[in-house]
């Protein structure tokens, strides 16, 4: 048994954890999802969020029969298992296209959770990720959004898996970067949602100070659920990480 805390910096809604960050931090506890000293990639992990992750409290992490469970006060907050499905990357765009798309970010002036760590416009550059995706050309009829992201030095962690002293963001931050861009490929203003499930594979952690591109894609809606995907690309056009999500439509006032 180990423990996990979601610091208030990593909120999604103002009183609960960012779904992507929490899921990524839990994924780091999955044995299948932890790289060895000779590996540089995290295989797919699927995390299902059962309730809003509380902030600044100690939660327990246990593993039984291949399921890693995050619990608090006797209730299950999230469950993680090795991901078995192949994840399909969202077609990328170049940096210039992604940067131009940011001007049409729907959450810039009206946002269900404006202090969200991933996409909140009220977060400072040295505090939140400030990923502001705007619409780009669809592929095969699927709506896509894109944004640039340059990881701030405050997100740096020391990873011995990479040579040359390169500073990179953490696994949890990488999951957070893959999170909300998927949601914005759906109509988050007309249909506020929170993350219900996320599956991600991280091939390489993003480098601090380098410009990246994050692309999200809408892949279907059924009832209260929306299915989306996202991909983190390097500025040179390499896939760094891919994810797929299930979102649940909610009344945002219940999360404030």
TrEMBL record:
Q: Which InterPro entries match?
A: HotDog_dom_sf (IPR029069)
**What's the protein name?**
Thioesterase family protein
